Amino acid sequence: MPKKKNNRQHLLDAGLALLAEKPPEQVSLDEVADKAGVTKPMVYYYFGNKVGYYQNLIQYVEEVMLDLVNQCLSDGGSFRTIMKRFILQRVDCILNHPEFSSAFRIIVSNKELWGVQVREHFISIVRAFEPVFTGEIENGRIKPDANLQLVMATLNTLIEGAYRIHGRKFFETADTEKFADMITAMIFEGIGTGTRE
Description:
Elements: H1 7-21, H2 29-36, H3 40-47, H4 50-74, H5 79-96, H6 98-108, E1 112-113, E2 116-117, H7 119-127, H8 130-138, H9 148-166, H10 168-173, H11 176-191
Antiparallel strand pairs: 1-2
Helix pairs in contact: 1-2, 1-6, 2-3, 3-4, 4-5, 4-6, 4-7, 5-6, 5-9, 5-11, 9-11
């Protein structure tokens, strides 16, 4: 039997849902409390203040995205293989958890939100790929001057760009394996040395 969500979790989920509907600067704690079905003092009870709430919301998104990355890394393989898994996971996230996808996009595209530094959260997600990426540089599959942060930002931009241009229906009807292969090939055109696994 699934565990009942507590008010704290409802508040975090409400923030995610609101971020999927409107820009972050338009999201108020009153709306968060209302959407969560609790009173505004509950926000302060769980998070202390507005900055505390948003720090926890950003950390929540980071933890979910790190879980997604760790799922991609758990079966091992080359960076190319792991990157393809990540693309497929991101597409699944867009389709089945659009609120996380929206929040992740916001974190990636901002240095600061609500007085909270967010860039470090994106960097921590990217760093999870470092051991595999560095190994691929050392074995000659990736160019030595390739930048992992730039690679992952480009990857995210290509995925989000396809979503913004074509909409949800594109991912529902497209062959996601082919899409992932295409994006992977585009990235490796820039960073690959031509040496295959």
